[in-house]
Amino acid sequence: MKHPSRPLSPFLGRILLVLSGLIVSAACVHAETLNLVYPRPVSAFDHRSEYPLKLLELALAKSGTAFTLRASTAVMNKARVADELALGREINVAWMVTSREREARLLPVRICVFKGLGGWRIALVRQKDLPLFAKVRTLKDLQKLAAGQQLDWPDTAILRASAIPVETSSSYDSLFAMLTNGRFSWFPRSIPEIWAEAQSHKGQGLVVEPHLLVRYPSAYYFFVNRRDERIAWLIESGLERSIKDGSFDKLFLEYHGDVLARAKIRDRVIIDLPNPFLPPQTPLARKELWFHSEHARTR
Fold this sequence. Notes:
Blueprint: H1 10-31, E1 34-40, H2 50-63, E2 67-75, H3 78-87, E3 94-97, H4 100-105, E4 107-109, E5 120-126, H5 130-134, H6 139-142, E6 147-150, H7 154-161, E7 166-169, H8 172-180, E8 187-190, H9 191-200, E9 206-208, E10 212-215, E11 220-224, H10 229-245, H11 247-263, E12 269-272
Parallel strand pairs: 1-2, 6-7, 10-12
Antiparallel strand pairs: 3-11, 4-11, 5-8, 5-9, 5-10
């Protein structure tokens, strides 16, 4: 027998309305999965992306958003990375040293990925040139020795602003060959980078110089397109949570604790350089964002 249809009770109607809302919300969450594309490493020997990528994953996980991460199809230098981000094309997130120009074109997340260590530079040199660097005590001494840098790195302008001669290349990989061939005397590398690079190129007679540390204020940020404010906010909120709960520092030391000990900062002569290109918005006053070595000797 067919029963006549009856209207839903108000109570049951409210339950169905709530359930419908939950289903719609779940669908929206799924639909709003954040799909991020970052620059592919420039070579098989380039391990510089490992830690920033892990930190980005940590920040996004802490933000509570669903996300995917994948490398770009193309390999690109920093100039192209900035162009692709600014134009909203192949990538939508990257990590780079900041500068006034980059912050004018792109949207930075002003929490330094490397806690300022990008401006703590140790020299990769030819083993036979080690005696040259053992004599360096002052900036005047250093100005006699040409450095090598990539043309589009902000560090190139920082070094030149202190009258340090710089030879440049448009290719990261070619800089190691140029150093091996004596085109310049030293390749300034950050503490997080240099040990892996020295290991990768040990067959070329390149070694980590044990005597000197060149230091200048620098910040290495995650950048996005200026229209991608939501992406920037999610990364920033996740980083802030990771700073607060200690997971940022835990990851930082997991990747860099050994190399910091290996660098023996307190045994090095430290030459401090100014960075006239550092944006004024850099949060230098937030001490928790930066690495400190209170007992390091300075010159």
